[in-house]
Specification:
The complex is a heterodimer of chains A (368) and B (319). Chain A is an alpha/beta fold and 368 residues long. Chain A folds into 2 domains: 3-202, Rossmann fold (3-Layer(aba) Sandwich), CATH 3.40.50.970; 214-344, 3-Layer(aba) Sandwich (Rossmann fold), CATH 3.40.50. In chain A, 37% of the residues lie in helices and 17% in strands. Chain A has 14 helices and 14 strands. Chain A has a 7-stranded mixed β-sheet, with helices on both faces. Chain A has a 5-stranded mixed β-sheet with strand order 9-11-10-13-14, with helices on both faces. In chain A, helix 4 (78-90) packs parallel to helix 5 (109-116). The two termini of chain A are 20 Å apart. Chain B is of the alpha/beta class and 319 residues long. Chain B has one domain (5-313): Thiamin diphosphate (ThDP)-binding fold, Pyr/PP domains (Rossmann fold, 3-Layer(aba) Sandwich), CATH 3.40.50.970. In chain B, 44% of the residues lie in helices and 10% in strands. A 5-stranded parallel β-sheet of chain B has the order 1-2-3-7-6, with helices on both faces. In chain B, a hairpin with a 2-residue loop joins strand 4 and strand 5. The termini of chain B are far apart. The structure holds thiamine diphosphate. Thiamine diphosphate sits between chains B (63, 111-114, 145-148, 175, 177-179, 245) and A (47, 76, 78, 100, 104, 107).
Chain lengths: 368, 319
Amino acid sequence: MSMHTNSVATSLQKDQQDLHLIRYFEALREAFDQEMTRDPNVFLFGLDVDDHKGIQGSTLGLVEKFGRDRVFGTPLSEDAMTGVAIGAAMAGYRPIHTHIRMDFMLLCMNQLVNMAAKAHYMYNGQVQVPLVVRTMIGRSWGQGGQHSQALHSLFMHIPGLKVVAPSNAHDAKGCMIAAIRDNNPVIFIEHRLLYSTEGFVPKNSYEVPLGKARILVPGSDVTIVAISHMVMEALRARKHLDSIGISAEIIDPISLWPLDMDTIVASVQKTKKLLIVDNAWLTCGASSEILSRTIEMFQEEDHVLPAIARMGFAPTTCPTTRPLENLFYPNGRTIAVKAYEMVKGKSAKAWEPPVDARAEIDEFKGPF
Amino acid sequence: MDKLAPQLYKKMLLIRKLELRLAEIYHTDAVKSPVHLSVGQESIAVGICDPLNKDDLVSNTYRCHATYIAKGGDLREMMAELYGKSQGCAGGKAGSMHLVDMKNGVVGASAVVGTTIPIAAGLALAMKFDAKKTGKQRIVVSVFGDGGTEEGCFYETINFAALRKLPMIFVCENNRLAIHTPIERRWATEKLCERIQTYGIETHKIDDADVFKIRETISSAAEKIRNTGEGPIFIECATYRWLEHVGPFDDHKDNYRDLEEYARWKKNDQIDRLAGMLDENTRNQIQQEVTDMIKDAEIFAENSPYPAAEELYTHVYAH
Ligand SMILES: Cc1ncc(C[n+]2csc(CCOP(=O)(O)OP(=O)(O)O)c2C)c(N)n1
């Protein structure tokens, strides 16, 4: 965890003073608190946002501070509640609708895809939908097929939606503030195993712009683009690679749509090797998109095409049992081996990195 | 009543003891699965399933241990599933939230609230078609929580089931909570049965979780549907969840529910009630049988191997 924290901290601008070390969920809470204080039109609602667990702690204390008009739970009616959020957003409010799993957002698809994404365009600018939909990817402890899906590519596919998946406390706060202020529907993707990770976060309000990637660790031999929780695994892989003299550049796109291809392509031009590690399935996924765009941009410039590889979920439903679940996800070691092969070539002798300490996974004792 | 009380007692006790055993061993990490326990709610599952035939179906939510056991789901396979083992009812791929045992009429459970309600109606539609060929009317019982009735697909299904007179029974297990949110913050009125009646559906409301009453209500509903080929019938059963929403602990200390209500429900515990109706010998014998069954299932689960790596890729597509 501290590895992650340090690399993010070092990549922050030096002028951001008055930092404090807080966890991801606290960074989100700070964003809600500051934005709700700043703008009375912001309100936060969704199943369980007002109970004593407060969505992994991220909404605790908000009812007491802002009242039940602005922080409220709902019936189990995701489809209709999404429509309600869109209506309120059209009327000038800035709702933050919260779901405790991304899987449940499948119940909101009609409203999000047919209305939220299209209203501004279809009604020729007469309305806007400044809506944030917060959602969480689950993992581990038997979450299984219906509590672990990462469906960001479904949303990336739809013109009119923005999609972000910050991997650390700093970006979680800054992105949330940017998402709330954005005049479009933004799908804000969190991960169950990131909530307790710590990071240095400015106490003041700030935006992490939607559409700008972050180079978490610079390197020269291979570019690893990792998404959501896979950023943590990529940083572990980087350590393994470092120990055998391979220098990996780790990029977190943060914003999946709009996608900052310039940062990625500039890195790949330097390293000539691109490994994309998605926290999702590969087919028609974010990795497919990043890869195609990289190749298109290389071709346009008549550059020699880079070596490319992708990793992500096994092309199956996520099983609950631990031994199969372990095979389902890429990890620091499998990522390191893949990058090693890309750098050293297929004929290089086999290399097996040591077992990782994966605190956020090993310490997670469920149930939710 | 002679045979009925020991029979119902045994089923309820098996569910209770097995779930409390899960709670007891949860800290060992043998069960790496989120468990939604039905402790306190057993009389509904048992009252529903006891009068059903083996080839009738019961469909449920993630809180599915009780109906799985009551319907006759394989106990060893259930335990192995919770342990993530290859001999589990789903080979370790489902865990606690998705128990399934089609050979014993237990339809696979879903962890997405409301999703199984229309699927139960589809199974009932198929049974209606089948009955025209076989002359035998099977039935489906769809079980869901009070929270499940808030999803649009619930009303859409109720309407369709009434329109097509599907051979099914809807059972709402109303424990007045969705995770921690009380019903008063989720329902505009509590007239659930009245709402359902407007679709022309016969409804029954049972507010004391009396296992005999539930059994009798289901039994006559099932008989009526079998005789006429026409349903559906809707039953709302009040109940109380003794433990936390998910996980092994009692969470009354978290202060989001009414301790007096809890005390009332504990006094009304159907397992205690039936224990009191049995002579000591019968009671002891049943308790021993139940203990042995659980032990046997645990040993089976412990000895079962974990699935091999290739299993990750089986059943992605049907062949
Ligand atoms: C569609 C959907 N939304 C939200 C959730 C999260 N969730 C899981 S259980 C639950 C409460 C359900 O309450 P109820 O239907 O009354 O059943 P109970 O848990 O009381 O048995 C919620 C909100 C979910 N699993 N599926």
